[in-house]
Structures are given as structure tokens and as C-alpha cells.
Amino acid sequence: MAAALKRTSLKIGMIPADGIGKEVLPAAQRVIEALGSAIPKPEFIPLAAGWEEFNKNGKALPDETVRVLKEECDAAMFGSVSSPSHKVPGYSSPIVALRKHLDLYANVRPVQSVSGTPGPDVNMVIVRENTECLYVKREEIKDLPDGSKIAIAERQITSTASERIAKLAFELALRRGAERATPGAPETFWKGPPQVTIVHKSNVLAVTDGLFRESARKVYEENKDRYSGVKVNEQLVDSFVYRAFREPEIFDVCVAPNLYGDIISDGAAALVGSLGLVPSVNAGDNFVMGEPVHGSAPDIEGKNIANPIASIRSAALLLSWLGYTDAANRINVAVDNVIRSGIATPDLGGKNSTTEVTDAILKNL
User: Fold this and answer.
1) Contact in structure between 22 and 80 (CB atoms under 8 Å)
2) Helix H or strand E segment including 337
3) Of residues 296, 343, 286, the one with CA closest to residue 114
4) Which end of the chain has fewer CB atoms surrounding its CB within 10 Å, N or C?
5) Which of 221, 267, 279, 259 is nearest to 240 (CA)?
6) Digit-coded pLDDT (tens) for 33-65
7) Whole-angstrom Cα distance, residue 27 to residue 30?
8) Where are the beta strands (DSSP E) in the chain?
9) How far apart are CA 316 and CA 28, in angstroms?
């Protein structure tokens, strides 16, 4: 979350990766290009990564991709990645690796319904810690004396990472509260002061989740003057899932460890109709990368029916994170208008193509 810098250009690394990423990322690029003078002149730098790249050249995340992102780009967009469900020697997820290389410690996923459309009123943001938990990927399998096997995974939670993600969640709650209080702000469904919900399972995992919970509360307690207008509560992760589906309107900003954040943000997408609608950014203190929440969807690859909205909204979220909030708002208003119009891809029950939905958004823009 930054103030817009006085740039003459905006260099964005484009990593379509696998599957429908190669279809939805170009749609996001078209929308960014259509913003004209609302943002600095964009320059798009194509970069390689993914399962297909691994099969071609033996490395899922080329060193050159990392170098270009670090040395030449202001931000990046990532499409989608196909990862095998079984262990493949030498392969590891490039998106997980990118988060580590660029210190993108937060995955921020807004889940918001569109006024005037069927379904519950939803306006939550899930802030997911992005660097540790079970995603440190320290696993082993051992043979037991009786001939059976045991698989063991190490879970890592640190106070440093937990406090850092909690601080971002509280700052985001403040920002959302200020935006809602601005005259003429669009309807967001949320009533009342900003709120942060700490999601954990410390009643069972008292050590690891206990540390996450304590660290998040420490951030609030040590900054009470700054966060005095923010309400704080907690939810066990299973209770959160239940209440999110029963009464999603009670949640504003929700902060969770990596695995829980991954699961609940994908699940929450069902509240607004489709993973194809939900954006995210992977953010750190010095870099931000937009990433639609959906996967690579190999079953529909190449059919021109993938929903481009998650990718386009991710581009808007990226621009907002860089400080170009007016440009981001223009994109989101155009997307909302198209959703209300009924122009939709098959995942939403529509019959329109990726190209047709993108063209409709551009027309509204």
C-alpha cells in the first residue's frame, strides 16, 4: 500500500505460466493498456515460469525471471501454475519460490459481492501469511518397524512473520475504514468501524497457532493509539468457515496463517459465485505481484471460456497497491457493470467467451 510515485513508465513483469494463465493474463494487460493517462505508460516484460517451463528446460523458476523481476520491474502479474499432485524430483512450485525470492510475505484476497446481483452481501479481505506454516515444505517419510510408513511435516510459525502480517492486516483495516468514510465512496455493504478477525486453531495447536494469535494481539496492544478505532476479534478456523457461509457480512479484514488463509480464501470465493471472480496480490515492503486465485484449469485451456475477471481485478488491486487508486476504481466499476449486465463465462452460468467478457469490460472502461 503505497502513495503513487512519479514514474514516467510502469514496468510490469508478465508471467502467464501454465494453462489458462496464458489466456487471462493478456486480458488483464489489455485493460491496463486501456487506462491511458490514468497511470504511467505501462511496459510489459514477458517472463517464464511454471510446470511447462520445468518440462522444457528443467527449472520451474528460471534464474533470469527472478533477476528481471528484482532489477527491472516495478511490479508483476502471475497467471496460474499447474503442479503435479505427486512428488517430481527437481520440481517445486514457482509461485511459492517467487514469494520467498521477493519477500512477498502477504497474500491479500478481497472477496466482494456486486450490489444488484443475487447472493449474500460480502465484503471481506483475507490476509494470508505467505512465507511459513506448512508451506516451508519440510517433509519426510520413514519406515516403521512393522513395515508401515510414517510421513512427517514440520510446521513453522515465527513471532516475526506473525507480527508482520498482523501489522499489515491492521493497516489495511485502517485504510478500508478511511475509504468507506470518504464522501461518494462506493457501497461496500460493511457497516460500523473497521474490524480485524484473527483466525487460528490454538485450542488444539496451542504452541504454533498460540504464537500466531499472541503475536497478532501483541501488534494491537502495542499500537493501541493508532488502532483504537479498529475492533479486534478471533475465530477458530473451523468456526470461521461455518460463520463465513452462514453470515459472511460479519467479517471485514481476516488474518490467518498460510495454510488456513489458502483454504478459507478459496472457499470464500464460493460466496460470490466463482474463483474466476476473486483477485489477489502477493505483497511485500518493496514489491507487489497480482495473481488471480483460480488454478490453471487444464480442462478448459485453449477454449477461450476462462473467466478473465479475477485476473483483471488482480491488475486493479495491484494498481491500487501501487497508489493508483482512481485507475483501480475505474477497472472495478467497469467489471461490476459487466457482471450486472449478465455477460458471463460458463463458470458463472453464462455463454460468453473470455474475449467477449474482456471486450465488454473495455467498452465500460
Assistant:
1) no
2) helix 325-341
3) 343
4) N
5) 267
6) 999 999 999 999 999 999 999 999 999 999 999
7) 5
8) 9-17, 41-46, 75-80, 106-112, 123-129, 133-143, 149-156, 195-200, 231-236, 253-256, 281-283, 288-290
9) 9
3-state secondary structure of 276: helix
* CATH 3.40.718.10 segments of the chain: 1-104+284-365, 106-275
Which grid coordinates belong to 163? Answer: 507480527
Instruction: Tell me which residue of 311, 323, 294 sits closest to 10, measured CA to CA.
Output: 323
pTM (2 d.p.)? 0.91
* Cα-to-chain-centroid distance, residue 151: 30
Return the SS3 of 160.
Answer: helix
Query: 222: which 3 cell numbers?
Result: 502495542
Q: Note the pLDDT tens digit of each residue in 344-361.
A: 999 999 999 999 999 999
> Would you say domain 106-275 falls under CATH 3.60.15.10?
no
The answer to whether residues 165 and 218 touch, using CB atoms and an 8 Å cutoff, is: no
pLDDT digits (tens, 9 = 90+) for 305-345: 999 999 999 999 999 999 998 999 999 999 999 999 999 99
Cα-based distances in Å from 63 to 8, 38, 73, 131, 353: 28, 33, 15, 20, 35
DSSP 306: S
* CATH number given to 1-104+284-365: 3.40.718.10
pLDDT of residue 288: 97
Q: What percent of the chain has pLDDT over 70?
A: 96
Question: What mean pLDDT is predicted for residues 58-79?
Answer: 96
Distance CA 256, CA 32 (A): 31
SS3 of the chain: helix, strand, coil, percent, to 5: 40, 20, 35
